[in-house]
Amino acid sequence: MRKMNNILLALIVLVLMIAMVVAGCTGQNNDQEPLIEADPVAEKNVLTIEGSGVAGTTQLTLQEIQGMQLDVIEDDYFALNNFGTKQYFSFKGVSLWQLLNKVGVKDTAQQVVITSEDGYSVIYTIDEVKREDYIDETNPEKKYKMIIAWEENGEVYDSTQYPFRLVMGQKEPGDINKQNWVAKVINIKVD
Ligand SMILES: Nc1nc2c(c(=O)[nH]1)N[C@H]1C(S)=C(S)[C@@H](COP(=O)(O)O)O[C@H]1N2
Ligand SMILES: [Mo]
């Protein structure tokens, strides 16, 4: 009797195992299902550009932005922070204005909101985004564009963790510009 029970148990386990394998296979073979489910890790590598001021919603990885044939800007950006500290940081990236043109900015666009992963955000007018003469208060020769950088002081940001930073010079002497350097940009909304 005990032997019969063991055989029965073994059979039940076998049937269950076969059922699991079959269920697994049908799931994988179903064409309707996406191969990759919405993966929070995968989504953290994209920058979303959206709003009524652009042609549509665009999601771009660092690799895609690097492949867009935009002028690569490499410069030492002057920073003044709220403690009065003056410092230079080298950045590599592309002009935000050029990037917006590439994705299709409309004539009606008025403002740009740049938002980070942690919710930190800044707002600029389109004219401020277009501006190519942000300053270094200590060097009258210097002119900066507003850029989306992917490399800071020789280190490329981790491409899986929102690898983009908004960077610009000062609007005028005394402008505490470092606070506008939004790190880990997740969204650019143009309206
Ligand atoms: N995403 C994000 N970016 C941010 C901030 C922030 O809190 N979150 N703080 C800003 C401020 S106030 C300063 S001074 C600088 C600090 O930059 P650091 O962390 O590279 O020194 O980042 C700016 N960018
Ligand atoms: Mo700051």
UniProtKB/TrEMBL annotation:
* Record domain Oxidoreductase molybdopterin-binding: where: 85-169
List all membrane-crossing ranges: none
Its signal peptide is: none
Q: Which Pfam families match?
A: Oxidored_molyb
InterPro entries recorded:
OxRdtase_Mopterin-bd_dom (IPR000572), OxRdtase_Mopterin-bd_sf (IPR036374)
* Residue stretches in coiled coil: none
Q: Which domain of life is it from?
A: Bacteria
- This chain's protein is named Oxidoreductase molybdopterin binding domain protein
Annotated organism of origin: Sporotomaculum syntrophicum
